[in-house]
UniProtKB/TrEMBL annotation:
Record's protein name: ATP-dependent 6-phosphofructokinase
InterPro entries linked: 6-Pfructokinase_euk, ATP_PFK, PFK_vert-type, Phosphofructokinase_CS, Phosphofructokinase_dom, PKF_sf
Region (N-terminal catalytic PFK domain 1): 1-395
Organism: Hucho hucho
Regulation of this protein's activity per its record: Allosterically activated by ADP, AMP, or fructose 2,6-bisphosphate, and allosterically inhibited by ATP or citrate.
Top EC class, one word: transferase
SUPFAM superfamilies documented for this protein: Phosphofructokinase (SSF53784)
EC nos: 2.7.1.11
Amino acid sequence: MAQPDNQSKRFFESLSGAGKSIAVLTSGGDAQGMNAAVRAVVRMGIYVGAKVYFIREGYQGMVDGGEENIKEASWESVSSMLQMGGTVIGSARCKEFRSHEGRLKAAHNLVQRGITNLCVIGGDGSLTGANLFREEWSGLLEELVQQGLIDEDAVQKYSALHIVGMVGSIDNDFCGTDMTIGTDSALHRIIEVVDAIMTTAQSHQRTFVLEVMGRHCGYLALVSALACGADWVLIPEMPPEDGWEEKMCQKLSANRAGMKRLNVIIVAEGAIDCNNKPITTDQVKDLVVRCLGFDTRVTILGHVQRGGTPSAFDRILASRMGVEAVIALLETTANTPACVVSLCGNQAVRLPLMECVQMTQEVQKAMDEKKFEEAVKLRGRSFENNLKTYKLLAHRKLESELPHSNFNIAVLNVGAPAAGMNAAVRSAVRVGISEGHKMFAVNDGFEGFYKGQIKEIKWADVGGWTGQGGSLLGTKRTLPAKHVEKIAEQMRAHNINALLVIGGFEAYLGLMELLEARGKYDEFCVPMVMVPATVSNNVPGSDLSIGADTALNAITDTCDRIKQSASGTKRRVFIIETMGGYCGYLASVGGLAAGADAAYIYEEPFDIRDLQSNVEHLTEKMKGAIQRGLVLRNENSNENYTTDFIYQLYSEEGRGVFDCRKNVLGHMQQGGAPSPFDRNFGTKISAKAMLWLTKKMNETFRQGRVFANTEDTCCLLGMRRRALVFQPVVQLKDETDFVHRIPKEQWWLKLRPLMKILAKYKTSYDVSDSGQLEHVVRNIRPKESDASGAM
């Protein structure tokens, strides 16, 4: 698809791995996505000309040595690895490596193979061990010389050991990164179980107490509580205050009185009270039964959370980190400290390994010393914001505690349905009520608005909405321009003081039309904000939209099944059509997550020569050990090179080597329950939007009414690199291709070379965008920096 150009030549000259050896190992507990990281390290390493080795069974394999434990990897040896959970190369906890003698054996085994570059995928213990090994390296080599096991030439040749770490841990307990490899997949497992339990709990009016992993970190418990709307959550970083038992029972009882038929309590396995005493699920169950008499059950999820296939998010995260780790190894010098490849917003960054480890240890120290607020802050802004949002949404204030604003806010969904919209509406309604506002729900978008389908919506009305797919309010693509007079009438009739619009490109266009109507109708001179929600991820001003992650998971899961259908048969190539309009996000990022060989999109024009080149490339691969090929095509990538055309071309040109099948995924990409990521993103971005509306209404309240007519009172709230940013929609006009309904510049296009490199294409890769070494500073991230932008 792409031929080498000047940039790729610069890439090879500046980052050649020729003559270098890289070893990759997974250590400590396993995490879904580790295989994707191993695959990326192996293929990127081979791509730049280095020799790459697997070290099996973690540090144990490094200490034991031998052909079976330290084995050279080939391109084909990591095929079909992407979708597998756990770690294919094995992981073990190794006592011997903790001793000096064990590390001496490991050093000898590495020197024998000329390995001086290590890529370690594991938790803080594994990475701390790697750093100690690096610090001792020159001393270990001297000892090996004294023992006559290596000569002086080897000491000169292999004088420095370079280490790059990637954090593989489902607990997300490592400071310095928004998300660790495996966390998102673990959340998928938890939410699948919680969603299933909720249906049976509802049938019998039961209370369920669920224990999730997290011995020292409550991230999984906290985010899963946010994502399922749990009644109560117990985490080690923020133990409940004295008397929590009574408060919890009052909350559960009040929820039942409000016609809720079930209760869910989530407990992290390391949950403690404010005296550092453990709180167990059985304790919680006994408490509920004794005080309330509710039928209560305990479910301990255990190792289910570590299992299963990695989510799309974890595959992309691990693939990006793996490629970045190889680049970091090639750029290291003898003076470069060991670094960990990390994620901040949607950017890859490099951080000094020991700074991250020290801060991670400080969290535990703060908890031991009962400095719980400090522990939460040390976890980072992402964790802190999750906790604040949960408290805001889960605990309803009494009428007497609410501020009385006399403001009315309308919320509506516009455009096509997207998973996560309901979580966003629930969040908006509850935050609005907590701020003292009256909330109004508009059914069926702008169409329902002008028809008067508006009614007040209360706290209890949105209970259980987070896990629901589609749009419970109803959504239409109708734009407001032709109906502004009637919409203005409805705004006047219900005294609407602010608008929250949740939707895709139509919502963006609709907001601009309402802004224009301000000149004629004062009713639109109110604060208005849009939250992007569309599977296509084509809204300008935001790197990510609610619903895109769920669609990516649908694509990835389907591609996995489709590829599996060909196992054991003759060689086969699948041509898959994805949604997205003219935006190639789903095809490109879905291609990276599913291990596609090519992805055809509108933003990157292609012609018949590119198609021919791709067929030839696949033919060559199929003649080897590769059995299956995957090609994705965005629905509007080219009006002439249709899915049928590409299918027929591949079928004809691959005759005798492989056969072809085609699939159009269609609306299954819009359906299904929202992923944990979309639930969490929708919840937090919507809460932030509501707090902004409150601030703007207070700022623009004059002479008994809200009057907001400046550009900065009509905004889109979007994820930009590392932060959530409010941007006036007027300022986004120049960034928009209105004909094709896409932003003129799209950040994810930088990920396309990764997909091509991992599919064995020679292509240009802009290394100038690689993460530079930064330093860990407490809570340095811009406001709301979050894993939400990580894709």
